[in-house]
Amino acid sequence: EEFLGAPLFRKEKVLKGEGVVTGLAWTSMGGATLPIEAGKVHSLDRGFKLTGKLGDVMKESANIAYSYTLGHLAEYGADADFFDSAFVHLHVPEGATPKDGPSAGVTMTTALLSLAKHQAITRPLAMTGELTLTGQVLPVGGIREKVIAARRSDIFEVILPEANRRDYEELPDYLKEGMTVHFANRYRDVANVVFK
User: Fold this and answer.
1) CA torsion sign, 124 to 167 to 65 to 191?
2) 7 in a domain, yes or no?
3) Is 53 marked active-site?
């Protein structure tokens, strides 16, 4: 620091708990971890709220995640009626920072499912991928930057879209060393890794 100044990147804190999942984002500064939190606010009625300065595309991804989760709770071992009397709040921290893009779809779905299953993710794991309403996982950009962000946060297990396998395989060996990577075609592939 004496010669070069303050570091450009700081080690990012990984948040943990029920309904909390670490995503991977691609920003103008490179990659970043993107924690996503889902919490049950009350049981008076059903509802869904989004915060975190989200752009239109990310809001659409959140709504797709909510609809997909709502329709598949029993399939993933959660109470099929969980959301019938749950007002859910989905938040992406660092609320002053604008966020957009579709690549947090699988992360948002996993946060909602973690909440509904009452099952926290207890190991360092991060993920990225766009989710469709039918549960397909679509490719995203910035794989190199996202892998670097995971490593910077001491996360060596990641879930990536199957369609990004070639992008990952083309990375230099020093970025892949020590990494455990799971590739997903459908959300079922993600859930099998996360909730095993």
Assistant:
1) negative
2) no
3) no
CA atoms of 187 and 55, how far apart (whole Å): 23
- Does residue 14 lie in a domain region? no
* Nearest CA-CA partner of 21 in 77, 69, 53: 69
Locate 66 and state its tokens. 């909510």
* 72 lies in some domain: yes
Per residue in 143-167, pLDDT (tens digit) is 999 999 999 999 999 999 999 999 9
Q: Is 67 a catalytic residue?
A: no
- Concatenating the DSSP letter of every residue in 14-60 gives PP-STTEEEEEEEETTEEEEEEEEEEEEESSS-EEEEESSB-HHHHH
Q: What is the pLDDT of residue 7?
A: 56
Largest CA distance in the chain: 59
Q: What is the rounded (10 degree) CA torsion for 15, 19, 22, 23?
A: -140
Write down the catalytic residue from 61, 103, 114, 153.
103
pTM value is 0.91
Q: Indicate whether 111 belongs to any domain.
A: yes
Catalytic entry in 114, 117, 146, 153? 146
Specify the 3-state DSSP secondary structure of 37. Answer: strand
Q: Which domain holds residue 97?
A: 20-194
The residues of the chain scoring below 70 in pLDDT are 1-15
For the chain, the domain total comes to 1
CATH number of the CATH domain containing 81? 3.30.230.10
